[in-house]
Amino acid sequence: MRYPEEDLIALLKNAGVDFTSSLPCEKIGRLLEMVETEFSNPPLRHVPLTREEEGVGISAGAALAGKRPAMFVQSSGIGNMLNALLSLTGFYELPLALFVSQRGIYKEKIAAQLPMGRRLPKILRAAGVPFSIISTRGDFGTVEKKLDTVYKKNKTHAFLMSPAIWEESAKKGTPQAPLHPIAGSRLKHSATRLVPHLTRFAVLNIIAPYLNNKVVVCNLGFPSKELFYVHHQPSNFYMLGSMGMATPVGLGVSLSTEKEVVVIDGDGSLLMNPGSLATAALLTPRDLTIFAIDNSAYGSTGNQPTLTGSCVDLELTAKGFGIKNTLKAATEKQFVDAMKKKGKGPRFIHALAVSGNRDVPNIDVPHLEIKKQFQEFLRGK
User: Fold this and answer.
1) What are the backbone dihedrals phi and psi of residue 315, each rounded to the nearest 5 degrees, phi first?
2) What is the structure's pLDDT at 2?
3) How many helices and strands (H and E) does the chain possess?
4) Could you state, in order of their start, the residue ranges of all structural domains in the chain?
5) Which CATH number is associated with domain 200-378?
6) What top-level class would CATH report for the domain 4-171?
């Protein structure tokens, strides 16, 4: 007997899907295990996620590098990713296929799954995210037709999959999903105390020469505006929305190209999606550097304080999530030495700065032109 999961995976491969990511759902346990197994052999890639929103960013980075991404989540997770779907994937016109285990509609035993599961079609319709109802194995033909549009026309499409599809598979037992241990022992770390003296704008000026011809993904708001003013180049991808997505996008790009990738992130953004550091530690992209400029403030919204000024050390956070190659810098020499230093990635540079923004013009390159130039650089044009 052939499982419906096998049919769906074969369909995905025929559509050219080569980059998958997922979060657990008991209703599609066998499907998730098979996806992980089938898409873990290069050039195919599977990424286990810590949060759905993170997956949107990683998938966007993979799409920028020419991959065909697909995500597997449950219906409750859509609520965690709507803004990123609209202001990142949709805004930059990137392809993404969403396979959603729709809870709350078929033999649901968990009452908390009912509100989101039942309202999901209306939520997606209101958000302008196209979707298809996949109720039976016979609806897989719809998946095949829609996937062609997703990847040829750079669209987002959600496939709402009823648990009824996998019911016979579930009766035969769901295999235990494999674990992904990170090698190494638990270590105690002590914080390195440095005093910042330079603004983010000054830091960007110092590291600009070391960004030449590198792939750069920059945090939204004033960081992108300042980088555009200091060192614009076609290989820069400016985040114009989706706070917290710079590191996930950079991670997705790094997993999909052999070029060196530098993410310029910030404390407020990293605190919003810290789990991305764990994902980077697990997948160990060799050529990824996360340059985290920490000025202990939400610089683009009025310099309100972040928790890095009182109780969070981002370098220790990165270490705690499993990133081994880290350092802290606060002076011009330390920034230069950090950018010159090589080592196996992912690298995390905790760049301390004082708060404050430089009054620079807005980015005057249209967002789709930013995408075009970035993709042409990745393709070597």
Assistant:
1) -65, -45
2) 86
3) 16, 14
4) 4-171, 200-378
5) 3.40.50.970
6) alpha beta
